Structures are given as C-alpha cells and as structure tokens.
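Field reference: "sequence" (input) and "structure" (output). Example, Surface antigen domain-containing protein:
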Amino acid sequence: MKKFLLVAAAGLALAGCATDQTKGPSTTAEAAAVPAIALDDSDKAIIDATLQTASKTMVGKPVAWTNPANGKNGAVTIIRQGYTRDGKLCQEFHLVANTSAARAQQVGKACRSNGKWTPEGGFTLGS
C-alpha cells in the first residue's frame, strides 16, 4: 500500500510539471515577440553610410542615424573588429532602428570589400 501511494504521489507531481510545460512555451514566445521595422532603400543607404562612419570610431561607441524623410532613426555600434581565418577584415555591429511605434535591433557582420564595409546578409530588420 505504501508503494502505491508513493507511486501515485510521484505521478501527480509529474503530471503537474507536464501541464506547466505546455503553458510555458507559448507564454514565453509571446513575451519574446519583437516588433519588426521594415527598412526602405533610403533607410538602408543612410544606415550603410552610418556603418562606414561607425567603423572609424571607437569600438562600442554608438553612431546615430536619422532618416528625415520618414522619421526613422537609430544607431550603429561596432562591437568588435578582427580578421577571419582567411585574412578578411570583418566586424560585428549592433544596429538599432526606431519609429514612433516600435524599436527593432539586429546584430550583424560586415566585412571589408573594395574599400567599403559590406554587411553580410544586408540589414534584416523587418521584412
């Protein structure tokens, strides 16, 4: 009889955990949702110019950008610079973009090519 009660108690304890786990991920996913900001060509051109400028400043120092045509703004911060195994100079950057209703961010990588920092994968905020 004691074995049965112990097994039943353990089963009830585990059943409670299983129930909590099914609720957890959906709540976490909802809390982790980040608003997307679509960048148009004028935003990308301004951010690209800011990336070139940020690359000349100190690592860790944000360089602000603003697009007066649509009111979007943000900053580019170089996180670190270094060489890849094949000798290519690259840097990791943090991009922030703001609108009146949302804020989005991206960590990306840009490498030096033909005298210019070119982001790998482009700027991927929004669609």
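The radius of gyration is 23 Å.
Residues 41-119 form one domain.
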